[in-house]
Amino acid sequence: MSTRVFVPADSTARSLGADAVAEAVAAADPAIDLRRTGSRGLYWLEPLVEIETAAGRLGFGPLDAERASRLFAAGAPAADHPDCLGLVEELPALQVQQRLTMARVGLIEPLSLKQFEDHGGFEGLRRARALTPAEIVAEVTNSGLRGRGGAAFPTGVKWRTVLDAEGAQKYVVCNADEGDSGTFADRMIMESDPYLLIEGMCIAALAVGASRGYIYCRAEYPQAIANLSEAIRLVEAAGHLDGFRLEVREGAGAYICGEETSLLESLEGKRGMVRYRPPLPAIAGLFGKPTVMNNVISLATAPIILARGAEHHRRFGVGRSLGTLTVQLSGNVRRGGLFEVPFGMTLRQVLEGLGGGTASGRPIKAVQAGGPLGAYIPPKHFDTPLDYESFQAIGAMIGHGGLVVFDNKADLGALARYALEFCAEESCGKCTPCRIGAVRGVEVVDRIRNGEQAAENRILLKDLCHTMIDGSLCGLGGMAPLPVLSVMEHFAEEL
Amino acid sequence: MRMSEGGGGRQGLGPTGAASDLVRGIVERHRSLEGPLLSVLHTVQDELACIPPECVPIIARGLNLSRAEVHGVISFYPLFRTAPPGRKVIYVCRAESCQAMGGIELEAHAKKRLGIDYGGTTADGELSLEPIYCLGNCACSPSVMVDGRLHSRVDARAFDQLIGR
Ligand SMILES: Cc1cc2nc3c(=O)[nH]c(=O)nc-3n(C[C@H](O)[C@H](O)[C@H](O)COP(=O)(O)O)c2cc1C
Ligand code: FES
Description:
heterodimer; A: 495 residues; alpha/beta; Ubiquitin-like (UB roll); 16 strands; B: 165 residues; Glutaredoxin; 7 helices; elongated; binds flavin mononucleotide
């Protein structure tokens, strides 16, 4: 039998040369059975080539085309080759992980339904089909799953509201806008295990009685859109959707469209203007109909909860943060990538243990957690455990799980300014504190940085931040001041 | 334009009736969708490299919207354009992770090398430069996207290689 070799086709891996590596492998030994998988998310090792052996998959990476040609010149290399990383599953960076949601990511060919099912795909959906909607909702509620898009609202409670809402037409909407800098877990699911998301949406649809679903994906992710669209076509042709109508819709570069009511407006074909609440989208959402909206990771975690049961999910995590967090490490970090770990690891364990410190080798100055609206966390807080409550206690948020690392050359005053500039750029303009506040905020920061009446302007800036926090209609204006205030508090010499 | 493509030399709607027919056809094909406008606009931009202002009345009529509504949507979204870009569009990530790895220097280099600011196109019509806020490639910052393809850890040298100048 010919040797089976796996080369990732994830967009980050491709940006690092995975296509050229795949070509080199195929050219070196035409007998090789070459498969294009997703990525494990260990991006510092990409392109990571895996070779199937009786003991498991051997890893080699990072490779480029030239090294790959040499490596495969005399057939597939073996475990005793000096460049071999050993068995991929035994790499410390995977060993420390607890892959519930991302279990198949990087392992299978993303569009192979057979591989999906061979690795447990559709088990959750099959179980859901044997339950009543109320039983599905109860399972998700009991699992303790909280929304992974940022607000950490209990998913089961949201589903219950939609199940109880009256309406002949209900919708499931997947929020795949993933606009936060430093996050890519949604992209990885959509590119590398798209059937998982589809399975999760089918489960949500059964739970609430929805007959149509939309995945709203940002346009910045062309490969995710392509893979998902093809996956929907294939899964529908195979008869797995059971009448549920699912479509991918593409955003057009507006960050605010990740906010749920803005997203609904955008799906309806309008400007992404944030809506007043109430009514909640669960009661009057898409086209005014009851709508469940969840993040990609929330939906993609439903299948394993249904397949293994709520208790299994509750075994991981701490306190009220149950299950796993898909930590995404980026910025100035030696080992950047995705690590799915139970809630409760400390920030330091993640930054140093998993990340290996900065890429530059300089000390870490700050970490921004939870995207562009998240606080800059100073080293004195690095012993904080990664769970929603502990982060809240230090004035930070976990958000979608992104951690962006900055070394001691970073200019935090400039980053605080950027937070407000970004808010001004992305504001939908509906409420005044956000629309005007962000613009004025940039001006005040500039005055402080130019030394113009710095003390008075600092007071003014704080006041403005609190006006935005208290008076904004949604989390954009309501949270954009958080990075600014965190810099003022922890890095006072810089702003 | 979809992130997957640049202008590729396409020149917008032009004076011919053929292009108007094309837009009418696109509207027709999407009419059965719920909330079809964004999909229509994306498809028009795929075909014509932009959404020429002359299309607005056609789309508005076809979807039973006002011209102001259609215009309002086009102007809301950063990725819709009303004039064709250069043959290739270079999207440079401005977001935090990329900033942490030299994104600001890259941005300055890109502007200087091409002699244009964001939103601009080189005089020969080849390259347009656009800002983008995260490409989901943050573990390998700084990131650039050209023709739907990501590029990782882009420094000044890699950028020059990428644009072939
Ligand atoms: C400005 C802003 C941007 C947001 N962007 C996203 C996003 O890109 N993806 C996401 O899932 N949630 C985003 N959210 C959160 C959503 O509004 C909403 O809470 C989420 O989709 C609910 O899903 P979940 O309960 O599964 O997390 C954003 C919120 C705000 C205020
Ligand atoms: S911040 Fe640049 S790719 Fe995410």
